[in-house]
Amino acid sequence: MKGRSWTSSNHRGDLDLELALIVALLCMACIYALGFLGINIGDKLTEAASIQTDSYVGGPSVPNLSPIEDPPGSGRYPIGPITGGTPPYQVIEITDPANPVVIGTTPDIFTITDPTVGEHDFQVVDDGDNRLENPIVITVVEPPAVPDLNPVEDPPGSGLYPIGPITGGTPPYQIIEITDPANPVIIGETPDIFIITDPTPGDHSYTAIDDHGTRLVQPITITIAIAETTYFTSDGVGTITGYDNVRATADGHSMANETIPASINGVSTKAIAMGVAISLPGFSKLTGSLTFADGITSIGAGAFQGCSGLTGVSLPTNLTSIENQVFYNCWGLTGTLTIPSGTTNIGVSAFSGCSGLTAVSFPESLTSIGNYAFNFCWRLTGLNLPSGLTSIGHYAFQNCRGLTGPLNLPAGLTTIGIWAFDNCWGITSIVLPDNLISIGDYVFQNCRGLTGISFPANLTSIGRNAFAGCSGLASVDFPTSLTSIGQGAFANCAGLTGTLTIPAGITSIGQNAFASCSGLTTTKVYATCTFGSVVFVSCTNLTVSIPVAKTTWTAAFFGAKAVSTY
Q1: Cβ–Cβ < 8 Å for 307, 288
Q2: How many CB atoms are located within 10 Å of the residue 465 CB?
Q3: 519 in Cβ contact with 497 (< 8 Å)
Q4: Strand-pair category, 60-61 with 83-84
Q5: Which of 64, 253, 264, 324 could form an SS bridge with 234, CB 3.0 to 4.6 Å?
Q6: Given pLDDT bands bounded at 50, 70 and 90, which one contains residue 419?
């Protein structure tokens, strides 16, 4: 181009045109070449544009952007496993985009626990600040609910137990039995109500799971009573009325060591009917030990009378009174009888004739022992009577010949019935309570092992034959308060020796009061006293001193060795 000159004003448009033509030719050549090689230039341009605009290539990813509760009902929603990007990964809740919250860091899997009802959004950011292209969404719906977690049989007797109507969640609902949590069993599906049919006896647990895997907050429980195997019969309202020994025999049941059940056919047992052992033969066939359910509060009079095959009874703890003749003549009972702690009264002849008993444990609550209560329990070896006892009935311990050692009567005792301890041969001493003012007829008759007795200071009378036949009694020391000694009160007390001191305040001594007390040697009586006949008959060593003015009394002292005056 030597010799040519270009100026900016004259030649710039020509230059620009030439350059444009050159570029166009080069582009056409390139496109032709690429087409010759089979490369689609349009596709490559699109790919290039994508690479430049997508910042998520090489970032984290998850297999499921809508995780579900796993396992169902656990409240746990696992996110992951997270792959790609650069671990560890931050998990951020972005439900409120303006207030993101970092909730944890994980190398692979993160579990969202117990999210509240509603929709929750989460993001995952790796160590290079790369994140998921789209957020994770967890939707928690209101869980299913039922109006009654303890459904009952409806209608009664049908064996049908309706669950529902089920509300909340997303129907339909699966019903799953979870009685054995390790082995749940799907038993059906329903849009609203499901019927459990004829469940077996025992406790059963169920849950309902909706279409999103959300379950009831608490399980449903159905309890089916376990049928009792008992041969005791009931009136249907809580009273035992008998024992079906015929069926027991047919079933090969031994009828030994029975327990009276706490309930029969779903009705709590509260009482034993009166006289069932006499009116129905079944009870009389019972053998071995008999245990009562604690809910029983009453045992009717004569309920087990004559059940001689019984060897032991375990009385209910709630028993407050033992009625008359309940265990009369149950002579097979052995060992220690324990009276329940709340019992206040033992009825007439309640344990009379239970000759195998060796001991009785009385509760402190006991206040009264009835007539004949332990009559002829002749193997009893000792009595520890409760401090609250106020009354011992007639013949209560008569013929309990095995009783030995001292007899300490409670301080609160005010009444001892006639013949109460008659023929209790082994008693060696008696301490009577201070409150006792009278000793009844025959109370300690024939207690021949008795060697000493302590009379209370306020005693006023000793009844007929009260100590007759107490041949071991060596001496008596009467209180000054005593005013009356009954007929035969100390007859045949051959062990009495020496001087018998009769208080000046005594006004009456009955017939034969000291008959055959051959060991007595002297006594003195006072003018104020009246006597029955032969008070000292057969007292062959006794000299009686009487007032000179009462020589007409000599008939009263017939049989004494001598009578003197003063």
Answers
A1: no
A2: 26
A3: yes
A4: antiparallel
A5: 264
A6: very high
Cβ–Cβ < 8 Å for 413, 388? no
Q: What is the CATH number of domain 60-140?
A: 2.60.40.10
- Between strands 287-292 and 310-314, the pairing is parallel
Query: If you ran DSSP here, which 8-state letter would residue 2 be given?
Result: T
Could you tell me the pLDDT band of residue 210, with boundaries at 50, 70 and 90? confident
Annotated domain spans of the chain: 15-53, 60-140, 160-224, 227-403, 406-566
Q: Rounded CA gap, 125 and 67, in Å?
A: 18
Query: CA torsion sign, 355 to 357 to 361 to 363?
Result: negative
Q: In this structure, what DSSP letter does residue 502 have?
A: P
> DSSP letter string over 36-74?
HHT--HHHHHHHHHHHHH-TTTTSEE-S-SS---SSTTS
Q: Which residues contact 181 (CB under 8 A, 6 or more apart)?
A: none
- Which residues, at least 6 apart from 484, have a Cβ–Cβ distance to it below 8 Å? 460, 461, 462, 506, 507, 508, 509, 510
* CA–CA–CA angle 514, 518, 521 (5° rounding): 90
257: phi then psi, degrees, rounded to nearest 5: 55, 55
| Closest alpha carbon to 334 in 402, 432, 420 | 402
**CA–CA dist 539, 443 (Å, integer):** 23
Query: CATH classification of 227-403, choosing from 3.80.10.10, 3.40.50.2300, 3.60.21.10, 3.40.50.300?
Result: 3.80.10.10
Q: Are 240 and 271 in contact (CB under 8 A)?
A: yes
Q: Place 141 in a pLDDT band, splitting at 50, 70 and 90.
A: confident
pLDDT in tens, 530-560: 888 899 999 999 999 988 777 666 678 888 8
Q: Judge if 60-140 and 227-403 fold alike in CATH terms.
A: no
